[in-house]
Every structure is written in structure tokens, then in C-alpha cells.
Design brief:
By secondary structure, this protein is mainly alpha-helical. Helix content is 50%, strand content 8%. It is built from eight helices and two strands. The chain has helices at residues 3-10, 13-24, 29-36, 40-52, 71-85, 102-106, 109-112, 119-126; strands at 56-61, 64-69. It has a two-stranded antiparallel ribbon with strand order 1-2. The chain is elongated. The two termini are 37 Å apart.
Length: 145
């Protein structure tokens, strides 16, 4: 499965709606066009993109082709997205990165934006939930190796 092709195919509002509709019903082009309020030619073009991405399967019923979502591909895509969400941020190792500015590295990414760190960030990034007196450390040192 080509993850990027599937994501690009789902990135269009109409194609996303087609997937939502076809998850509940197996429809032909004519019925999809009526449901979406667009032409059959437009539906056919959207179906072509979704089929090329592996998200749809067609089944001929008499003269008409009825479409169904390939749920296996949808589950694989969901799994890939979940894997992305599970990737943990790593601290910058300025010694390994020539383009990393050492002074910039020492500053917390939240401090650079002028915002204060949340409790969660202080815990995971700075190693504690609160600094002495409830104030944050000036440099935060959350990116030190």
C-alpha cells in the first residue's frame, strides 16, 4: 500500500465523503452522484483516484458497477498513522548536527515562542512538574544531550 497515495486521495473533501458514504452502503456512480450533488463524470474521476490508491473495490452487478471500501487498506493506513503518532521526540544532539546552533539548542522550544511550558511539558521535557517557587528554569535545558 502506498501510504502517500492513500493520504492524498483522502485529502480531497469529496473523496473523503465518498469513502464515508461507501463505508455504509455499496453504491454505483449514479447513486453517489445523487448523494453528493455532483455529476456522474465528477464521481467517476474521484472513484478513479480512490481505486488507484487501493481504497476502493468494484463489483459488477448487471450493467452497473457498485463500489465498496477496501477496509484492509483503511486499517493499514490507520495503523501507519498510529505509528506516526507514537514517534517520540528526541533531543537535539548539537555535537552530531553541524547546522544546530548551540545557543538555540539550549533553549526550550516553548520558551522560543514566548509561551510557558505546560505541566506535561515540564514533566517530560524538563524532568519535573514544577521548578522551585513554581517558576521555570530560564534555559529549560530540555534539548541537552
Amino acid at each position: 500500500m502506498d501510504v502517500l497515495a492513500a493520504l492524498k486521495a483522502l485529502g480531497d473533501d469529496t473523496r473523503f465523503k465518498i469513502i464515508e458514504i461507501l463505508l455504509e452502503h455499496n453504491y454505483c456512480v449514479r447513486t453517489l452522484a445523487e448523494e453528493l450533488g455532483i455529476s456522474e463524470a465528477a464521481v467517476s474521476q474521484h472513484l478513479k483516484v480512490l481505486k488507484e490508491a487501493g481504497l476502493l473495490e468494484g463489483e459488477r452487478r448487471g450493467y452497473y458497477m457498485h463500489y465498496d471500501v477496501n477496509r484492509d487498506v483503511l486499517y493499514k493506513l490507520a495503523s501507519k498513522i498510529e505509528e506516526l503518532a507514537d514517534i517520540q521526540r528526541k533531543p537535539c544532539n548539537f555535537k552530531e548536527k553541524e547546522d544546530c546552533n548551540h545557543n538555540e539548542k539550549q533553549q526550550c522550544h516553548m520558551q522560543k515562542t514566548g509561551q510557558e511550558c505546560s505541566e506535561k511539558v515540564r514533566f517530560f521535557c524538563h524532568g519535573s512538574s514544577k521548578k522551585e517557587g513554581g517558576k521555570q528554569d530560564a534555559n529549560h535545558n530540555c534539548h541537552e544531550s
